[in-house]
Please model this.
Amino acid sequence: MWEAHFTNIIGVTSGSKKKPVEIRIETSDTKTFFRIKTKPLHKSQKCLCEPNEAEGRRGMFSINVIPNDEMYSLFLSYQTGMRVISPSDIADEMKKRIEMMMQNYKM
Model:
């Protein structure tokens, strides 16, 4: 019974009756790419593109989850190593959270 509750989320907080969305993530360096590849963000994770520094190509993954606070916290834990490229509302929420964090350090 509980297993079904956790299928489409990262962590334990469910977004009421929301449906999973495909989230595409780009890594900014090979270290982060291999970290995510070897320790997946979620069981739905798929590798869309391997990085190739010689060609200037970045790595890319997708996951299908219901967005929640644990997901945003996990993404933020990668700091400058990754960014959400789609959907735009998830990328915008990441920007909003980063801006709010910056406000905490303005004097």
